[in-house]
Amino acid sequence: MVLMTAISSSGKRGRCDARCYRGKATTKCRCICGGNNHAQGLERALENVRRAVGLPACAHCGHRLAGAEGTIWCAPCLEELRRAYVREMREAHRDFKEVSDGYPDSDF
Predict the structure, then answer these.
(1) Quick check: pTM over 0.85?
(2) Which residues contact 98 (CB under 8 A, 6 or more apart)?
(3) Which of 25, 79, 97, 102 to pair with 62, CA 20 to 30 A apart?
(4) CA atoms within 13 A on the CB side of 15
């Protein structure tokens, strides 16, 4: 995966890709990141790039994300929020069912 690309005014191209972030710590970085992503692994290298270009951060965990302005959430945090909501709804339904079981059926 290519993380960054750049073209100089003279037409010279450079990029930071898997050869860099999957590289060995003992080798020298030769790409445009200047060693910031070298041997960091994909997740950490992505976070470095997000931080460098100023992408907004998740409102819950702080991971930097591409997305719309305003409050944004990363996928893991959204999933956590969804699971908590489902759990709350199940508990509320269970509580309601326990209370309503003692009353006769009505047409409300």
Answers:
(1) no
(2) none
(3) 25
(4) 9
